[in-house]
Specification:
Distance between the termini: 65 Å
Radius of gyration: 30 Å
Strand content: 25-35%
Low-confidence stretches: 744-754, 868-872
Number of strands: 59
């Protein structure tokens, strides 16, 4: 096998100021620890042209801020101190707050299912910080390393990078604005690929639409209900045994016919491809990859094999040009099935049954010399997804040079936007994730990736109607707009949550389709200049420090979207913090308490189109609407980009870029074309101009596009009357709107009727994380017996944190920490965590062991997660109380049986009512609920060292068999735990 191409890092330096050279363009500097360290640095995989990073330019300027370094035990620590009051953003795909001061992340691409605001490594790596200085100027700092990198912003106004030696640090600026920094960054790492116009429409996905019949049913329902949509996605279940580049012959027997039917109805089809290739002789992908010698190797030189969906898999080494070419030609052939776009998933790369969730770091990549040569996986891990996306993109281009590829990648690195869009991974259906999705999309945009969005409605768990509708309202304004949900959850299509939610989704998506001309124009500008598409509100006034932490609003160019991410706070209850200047509210006669508020910045013009059902319905001769907001000088300007919506004729002049201006003179507003670019002739079409007056009021005028249009301004009194009338209309619309009910208000709990299901061996369990993390169903499959007595909101298997009945823990929403599926080759399990206040969490893992299919196990813990130092590190007095409520199908024939620690035998019948068993009278690690009529016993085994008290409580047709821990404070070092299991046995 190939030898490693290591770089020798000189040891004659330990700390000091970094040395600089100007590179790329004015204001950009490269810093290294020494001249030798500069020579030892690996090639750049973030820069589009490595020479731009490695070749100094002639420039007399010196950097304003110089980083310091320290090299310790092979780690290079870089610190750059900025003025007090500096705000931090970027760091790529990160959860949590928008302004990043106080946060620390690690760039290590990780399969982070169900992540939360504190997760420190997600699916992508961007060792990049955007710093906004107190005066509104900004600069960017890039640690140009592919290795695991700590980005530490915990110290105010200080950036610290820690990664393996040696790597350069690149600074951009300070420049006059954050936008100027991002434009400069794009000159280094490239701009976003120009997306096909259809990819900016709404996209519907699920893991999984399990057959072609179901796919067409979903597509047909969109059209029948008049809800706009452009794309249906195919998750892994379209494949034959999860084998890439294959189709299941029973469920997807004729993909070409399926795609033809979708195309006839205005839908595109996007299909998933994972990197894990099933290791199976006779499987054409495995065979050809082996012949071409493209697999990642273990340290001993043999192909690495790791478990993923198909079972044992090998993985292409995308660091090799021959592997990228091999993959690209597989993609080319795959496209012939009518594939419109490709979804690269699991490409961190994710590996099952691994503590690290990925392959060993000493695996070997035989990389091209220009990428860094032969290196271990620790060097190339963070760019694996980028290189896979690149290979997929290139394969789609080979397949059809006249179409723009559309690739979506889960894993990526800074620079991935050249090849693929992205989404924010396996998020959770809760309000925190709705709120966090705004900041996550913005951070990606501030890190060079403008084409992103979340799984609308949340991937893991069940959305409520209000959560889904509210999420669609804001999600319809994101650059990438897709709904997606995981297997085992309720349906998450826009019509799945009742009529009220369906109507809000329809309104939200019609808004998006009206705005497609504006959004498409923003992407053209982003592609050609490097500007972001969606930006934080403070971009309207970077000097206003009060805007820098606003997290529930954002900008699409001059369009401000203000959303409510609080369940009981609608549009009419929002407190809007607007940037200084003129911001005029408007709607499309569609205002609703569950939709965001819209504002247009004074001095702006944005183009609008009809609310088509799909982008393909649009025609250049469609009526064009210009929305105009004058500034304090009575002027406004805007731009519209038009082309074929696909292909590359726009690079040869085949487009029309129109600059519109509006000016107020003597009570007359003139709207005209000021400049055009491109060879396209202007289509003959009607022009509608809507001039905003404030308070949602506007006046309309009509004419012909390309010809000047004049609008006579109403008098001040007339304007006042229009504003007053419009405010009344707005209030009437809000008050008459059918608000979306939340889960507690839904009759019959239709949203909660399909909880998370665990199924393996003898057991099928159902769990509701959002109300106490309770088990509401314990179905014993061999006997068909339902042991639990439960409703959605109460009873079943519950746990409390005190000796009091229904103390903290029984009703809180629990986060899903981990969900493993037997079909993925893992032990079926679900790990939950509920915050019960005071720094305490209740943690519960429910598992169905593969090695003992007759039992299911519950491991619970009461844990001090963040108990304050003032309490001595200990919590309040707590007790872990396990409280299951079991059905008595035959009450007179049921009893509890056990042998105590002292050897005494007990049969406890319903007549006892309630009885505690403590000390040596406790069951000796096992007790059972016996049903003589069925000839069955539910056996409950537990660790006697964890259980201090047992309680039997008989009710009407029910019985509790409770396990209590000792009652005491807990600390991080001394949690309370109870581990126990259930099994059904036959009795004679």
């Amino acid at each position: 096998m190939a030898e490693y191409r290591g770089k020798v890092v000189p040891a004659d330096f330990t700390s000091g100021n970094m040395l600089f050279e100007p590179i790329l363009e004015e204001g950009v500097f490269r810093f290294d620890c020494s001249a030798d360290a500069r020579d030892a640095a690996f090639p750049s995989l973030s820069f589009t042209n490595q020479k731009n990073r490695d070749s100094p330019i002639t420039n007399q300027n010196v950097p304003v801020y110089t980083p310091t370094f320290e090299c310790v035990f092979g780690q290079q620590i870089v610190v750059i101190e900025l003025p007090t009051g500096t705000s931090f953003y970027g760091t790529g795909e990160v959860s949590g707050q928008l302004e990043r001061t106080g946060k620390r992340v690690f760039t290590w691409n990780t399969d982070a299912w169900g992540y939360d605001s504190g997760t420190t490594s997600l699916y992508q790596s961007h060792p990049w910080v955007l710093a906004v200085l107190p005066n509104g100027e900004a600069m960017g700092i890039l640690a140009d390393t592919t290795r695991r990198c700590e980005v530490d912003l915990r110290k105010e106004s200080t950036i610290k990078f820690v990664a393996s030696s040696s790597y350069p640090v690149i600074t951009f600026g300070p420049f006059t604005s954050p936008t100027a920094v991002l434009i400069s960054l794009s000159h280094a790492i490239g701009t976003v690929f120009m997306p096909p116009k259809w990819s900016l429409g709404y996209q519907q996905c699920r893991w999984s639409y399990d057959s072609a019949v179901r796919v067409l049913e979903v597509a047909r329902t969109f059209r029948e209900k008049g809800i706009p949509c452009d794309v249906i996605w195919m998750d892994i279940d379209y494949m034959d045994g999860f084998s890439c580049f294959t189709f299941d012959q029973e469920r997807f027997p004729d993909p070409k016919s399926l795609v033809k039917d979708l195309h006839l109805n205005g839908f595109k089809a996007i299909w998933m491809l994972d990197p894990g290739i099933k290791r199976e002789d006779g499987y054409f992908v495995y065979d050809s990859g082996s012949v071409n010698d493209v697999w990642i190797l273990k340290a001993d030189g043999t192909p690495f094999v790791g478990g993923v969906w198909p079972g044992p898999c090998v993985f292409p080494d995308f660091t090799q040009s021959k592997a990228r070419s091999w993959w690209a030609h597989l993609v080319k052939d795959f496209i012939s099935n009518g594939v419109d776009g490709i979804w690269n998933d699991m490409n961190e790369p994710s590996v099952f049954k691994s503590v690290t969730k990925t392959m060993p770091e000493d695996n070997v990549h035989r990389g091209d010399a220009e990428l860094g040569g032969c290196q271990t996986h620790s060097h190339y891990h963070n760019v694996y997804g980028l290189l896979m996306a690149r290979s997929t993109y290139e394969g789609m281009k080979i397949a059809n040079e006249n179409k723009r590829p559309f690739v979506l990648t889960r894993a990526g690195f800074i620079g991935s936007q050249r090849y693929a869009a992205t989404w924010t991974g396996d998020n959770v259906s809760n309000w925190d994730h709705l709120h966090m999705s705004i900041s996550m999309v913005l951070q990606l945009g501030l890190s060079g990736q403008p084409l992103s969005g979340p799984d609308i409605g949340g991937f893991a768990g069940n959305a409520t109607p209000r959560l889904f509708g509210r999420w669609m309202g804001v999600g319809a304004m994101f650059p990438f707009c897709r709904g997606h949900s995981e297997a085992g959850t309720v349906d998450h299509e826009p019509w799945s949550f009742g009529e009220e939610c369906e109507e809000v989704c329809r309104l939200a998506l019609k808004r998006r389709y009206r705005l497609i001309p504006h959004i498409y124009t923003l992407f053209y500008i982003a592609h050609t200049t490097g500007t972001p598409v969606a930006t934080p509100t403070f971009f309207a006034d970077p000097k206003d420090s009060g805007l820098r932490t606003v997290e529930n609003s954002f900008l699409l160019g001059p369009l401000l979207i203000y959303a409510s991410t609080i369940p009981d706070q609608g549009l009419d209850e929002l407190q809007h913090k607007l940037p200084k200047g003129i911001w005029l509210s408007f709607d499309f006669d569609d205002s609703h308490p569950d939709l965001p508020a819209l504002y247009l910045q004074g001095g702006s013009i944005i183009p609008l189109g009809p609310p088509h059902q799909h982008v393909g319905q649009a025609d250049p001769t469609d009526d064009l609407t210009l929305l105009v907001a004058l500034d304090e000088h009575g002027k406004a300007e805007g731009v519209l980009f038009e082309d074929d919506g696909d292909g590359y004729e726009f690079t040869k002049g085949g487009y029309l870029l129109t600059h519109y201006v509006a000016e107020l003179h003597s009570s007359v507003v003139s709207v005209r074309v000021s400049k055009t670019e491109g060879s396209w002739k202007r289509p003959k079409r009607n022009l509608h101009v809507q001039l905003l007056l404030g308070g949602g009021a506007k006046i309309d005028a009509q004419g012909t596009d390309g010809e000047p249009l004049q609008i006579t301004m109403p008098s001040e009194r007339e304007v006042s009357d229009l504003v007053s009338t419009n405010k009344k209309l707005f209030r009437n619309r809000i008050e008459s709107a059918k608000c979306i009910p939340d889960i507690q208000e839904v009759s019959g709990h239709k949203v909660s009727s399909t909880p998370i299901e665990l199924r393996s061996g003898d057991w099928a369990l159902k769990v509701v994380p959002w109300i106490g993390g309770r088990i509401i169903s314990m179905m014993h499959l061999p006997s068909g017996t339902q042991w639990l007595h439960s409703g959605i909101e109460s009873n079943g298997y519950e746990e409390f944190s005190g000796v009091e009945y229904r103390s903290a823990g029984w009703s809180e929403a629990y986060a899903i920490v981990e969900h493993n599926l037997e079909q993925a080759g893992e032990e079926e399990s679900l790990k939950l965590e509920g915050d019960i206040g005071g720094g305490l969490v209740l943690e519960r893992q429910i598992s169905l062991p593969k090695d003992n299919p007759k039992v299911f196990r519950v491991d619970s813990g009461l844990i001090a997660r963040s108990v304050g130092a003032g309490s001595g590190g200990y919590s309040r007095l707590v007790c872990l109380r396990v409280h299951p409520l079991f059905n008595l199908l035959h009450p007179t024939e049921s009893f509890v049986s056990f042998v105590s620690i002292d050897g005494s035998k007990h049969e406890v019948w319903p007549e006892v009512g309630e009885q505690f068993y403590e000390g040596d009278l406790r069951p000796n690690g096992e007790w059972m609920l016996v049903n003589k009529c069925l000839g069955l016993a539910l056996v409950n085994r537990f660790d006697i060292n964890e259980v201090y008290k047992c309680l039997v409580h008989w009710g009407t047709g029910t019985v509790n068999l409770e396990l209590w821990s000792e009652q005491r404070p807990v600390s991080k070092q001394s949690p309370l735990t109870i581990s126990h299991e259930y099994e059904v046995k036959g009795i004679s």
